[in-house]
Structures are given as structure tokens and as C-alpha cells.
Amino acid sequence: MTETLSISEAMATPLRVIRRHPLAVFVWGFSIAAFSLLLAVLVFGTLGNIPLSNGAEPPPELVGRLVALQGVTMLFNVAQLVLGVTIWTATARATLRIGRPDKWFFMRLSMDELRVGVVGIALLVGTYFAVLIVVAVGTLAGFIVWQISQAAAIILGAVLFLALIAFVAVAMARLSLIAPTTLILGRLAFVEGWQLGRKRTLPLLGLLVSTWLAYALVYVIIAFVVIVALFASGVFANMEALGGAGTLGDMFPSAPVLWGVALLVLGPGGFIYGSVLTLLSAPFTSAARQLLDGAPEDGAHALV
Description:
The protein is mainly α.
């Protein structure tokens, strides 16, 4: 096990994955984008008949459609969880196999995905309850101090808020190695993943901040391009015409525009989204790989 963690090496790993496996990156992003697009079509198709004019009655079958939509949406949430775990594991697996071809784009439905899913759910639930307890204790302390001094309670609230942000950031940094360590070792590695981060909290926190800064930069650039494209297409110029829409469906763009948006989302958008997913997962997989300093025998199946 190595003693140092190279943040620059970890941050360079997503670029290597994207450069060596561009088709896999596209497939990952395309899968998520297509799933999200299908859900959007289902939701807006169901809500399209909602009347917007004053006094208009919704169609009688709308209530039944909304109930059915709620049930289908719950199933979609489960499918989205499975797909998300599958894609994350694929990006991590590709990070461990950079340069090696894979006909299924590193995507599987195996015990690796099941273990990673268990780790993800456990970390999410555990973090949620930990934050809930911290907020409850802070609220109680603030209420007690408020009875003594309102100014002191406000200052205490600000301090506790900043402390909560710091707590969440440090916890995310320390917990970030558990999922990739689970994949590498081929078993639930809560203890091993936590121990990897021991005495390395600051480097892991630096890696987390670097990852999110890179993500924020990509997000801002994409948002800027989308806004410019919307202005150039004249969408905002026709906003006044939407005032006379009789139903929610009348506010939707024309079919050619919708098809154009779908092609952009599934084409360039798929590759961009796959790249973002790689950016968010590959650095921590690389970090775990560095700190483990070579795969043990019982984790070799995850790398071949």
C-alpha cells in the first residue's frame, strides 16, 4: 500500500479514459440521456392535455393518467438506480482497464454491480441520517441559545452551518474510496475503503474539490452554450405567443424542434454526459488504485 496520493495523476485519469475509450464514454452518456429523455416524453405526454385557461375543466381521464404516471415513475426510479450503478461501475472498470477493449463497453450486470449498489445505498442512507442528527442537535442548541441571546444564536447558526458543510465535505472525501475499493477487491470493502483514507483526508479533500471545480467549469461552459443556442434559435423571441396557449401541450415547441433537441441530447449530449460521469468517478478509482498499490489476488477478477 502506497503512502502518497497523486492528485494530478488521479485528475488526469478521466482524460485517459475518454481518449482511449471514446465509444464507451458515448454509450454511457447515451444510455443515461435516452433514459431521461424517455421519462421526459412520458411525463410531458401525460400532462400535455392540462388546460391553462381560467375556468377550464381538465379531461376526466387525466386523474387516471396521473395515478398511472406516478406508478410508472416509481418503476423508473428503480430502473434509474440500477442504470446509474451499472454506468458508475462501468466507468470505474474502464479506469482499471485503460487501453483494453471490451465489447460490452465495460457494462455488466454482475456481483460487482450488486456490491457497488449496496455500498452506494448504505453510504447515502448513513450520510442522510448523520446529517439529520447533526441538524437536529444544531437546531436544539440554537433554540437554547436563542432564549439567552438572539445575536449569539444567529452567530452560532452561521458557525454550525459552515461546520455542517465542512463535515459533509470531509465525510464525502473519506468515504469516496469505499466503492472503488469494493470493485477492486471484489468484496464489500467498507473497512478497507475507510482505512485507505486514514491520514489522507486533506489529499482526498483536495481531490474532491478539484473534481467538483472541474465539473462546475464544464457545467458553466455547457450552460453558456445552451443559452446562446436558445437565443440564436429564436425560442425566447416567441415567448409572447405562449400567452394564448389553451393547454400545456400547446406550449411545447414544434415537432422538428423537439426532434432536433432529442438528436442533440442523444448525440453530442451523450458524449458530453458520459465524459462528465467519467470525470466524477475515475479520479477516485485511480486514487484507490494508487493507494492499494496493485490488485490483490482476490480482486483480480475485477481487472480482467
